[in-house]
Amino acid sequence: MKIDGLLKERDGWLEALDESEICRLASSFRHGDQCAIFQPRKHGAFNVCFFVKFGSPLERWVLRAPIPMTVSKALLDEKTEIELATIRYVSATTTIPIPKVHAYGYSDTGSNGLPFIIMDYVEGCSSKDLRDPKYGMNWMLVTSFVDKLEMREAKHVYQQLADVYLQLRQLEFPRIGALGLPSRETPALSCDPEDIRVCNRPLSIDIVSQEVDGLEPSAIFPPKTTLPTAKEFVDGLLRLADNKLEKEHDQELDLRRCAETLYAAHHFKQFVHEEWLDQSANKGPFVLAHGDMDNIMSNLLFGKDYNLVAIIDWDFSRIVPARLLVPPIWLYGSQLAGVLLHQKDYNQRVGRLCAEIQRREEALDLPPLLSSEWVPLETCATPPLSSHLTIPRKSTRCTGTLFSKKWCPSQLRTPTTHGSRDMKKRLPRVSGRFMEASPELQSFSERKTREQMEFFEAEKGYYGDESPRRICPVPPFAYLDEKYY
């Protein structure tokens, strides 16, 4: 309901934006030259983009501003500074293609009290729209049944991905957080990259979303806080997931049982602390990660002949433990849940990317740093689980089936050890046994179930829905009764 209200408010705000004001703002940074909108505005969850062009000489720009309904006022300038500092630093120290920034403003100087960034418009299509002209479908899906060595276009894309990740891996920093400028008065367009430092908290989509929802994530990651160890950062990410589970009333219990959510949360933490964390790397290396590129395909733009022409949307970039710089989930062309269920297919693509990284390291006479870190990923579930860790809002949604296989008591195992049907049977059994052992978890589950039912009732009244959402039908602690299978 709240999100519905936010979306309506956002749509009304977007509709009311005056494009002539946008043009006047853009013109003020090009000697007053007149400009015009050359394509409809576009928006995502957090930003809106306007596309303007000047006639003589021909030049096209993008004016990008945050949407105030989905980014709280307290975060507007912080988010903008991180993006400006990161673009400046990456542009100065790598060959990663990023649109040139022409102008910017913070909330105290921006139009309508909003910060903005004006940058070059880059013609290209996102990686999710890449098509192979021979097969007429998404290139990543094609590569699942066609030998990649016979597909020059796909190989070319992998080579460019390898180059991007190699360069990101070379950028090491002393602390975890996000990049920032020496001060807000420092000109971001000409700032010496050596003056850009890790001085902001590791801002993320989850922090922004929880702030809008009133869940107070800043108590976990306060502004201007940087971290000296991987453990402190990872503990903070797990606390963000717990914060959402504790405070949010809609846990989508129409899609999954509360016991399964709690089971996944418990074992995900156990996995992170006992297996994922590398104590030898607790104090580094820490490297720059895009923040969105590993999970969302639309941040990479490709032009003619599949040439990578730009990587955009650096506002959630941050400095993280090197173990969190992992191959993108979308190599398989699927969501996190699909990758966990089809690990072999995903790992094959990771292997192909690693092969290109090794070739690139050899060609540039670089030490085999990234390849040595990524080659072991070809045979494990670390990349998707690392992605879960960086997205706390999803950390309990897809991992239950994986952990039910890993920690399933022997007496509850079925003859089949894999497959979605077996997973659907096994997870209720092991999560039910897990809940029975803890009265505290049972009490928490009962509370969350009550909150969810109250939410569904309020939702029914709000929408006037004759068929409201309902709690998942299996009774909370009847998981060991065979009639439910």
List descriptors.
485 residues, alpha+beta, five-stranded antiparallel β-sheet, three-stranded antiparallel β-sheet, 15 helices, 15 strands, 41% helix, globular, disordered C terminus
Please tell me about this protein's structure:
The chain is 41% helix and 13% strand. It is globular and about 70 Å long. It has a domain at 260-266 and 398-484. Helix 5 crosses helix 10 (343-363), helix 8 crosses helix 13 and helix 13 packs across helix 14 (420-436). The two termini are 34 Å apart. The chain has helices spanning 2-16, 19-27, 76-93, 139-142, 152-170, 205-212, 230-247, 258-276, 336-341, 343-363, 369-374, 382-390, 400-406, 420-436, 439-463, and strands spanning 35-43, 47-54, 59-66, 101-105, 116-120, 125-126, 131-132, 137-138, 172-173, 178-180, 197-200, 286-289, 300-302, 308-311, 318-321. The strands form five sheets. Strands 1-2-3-5-4 form a five-stranded antiparallel sheet, with helices on both faces. The protein has a three-stranded antiparallel sheet with strand order 6-13-14, with no helix packed on it. The protein has 15 helices and 15 strands. With 485 residues, the chain is of the alpha+beta class.
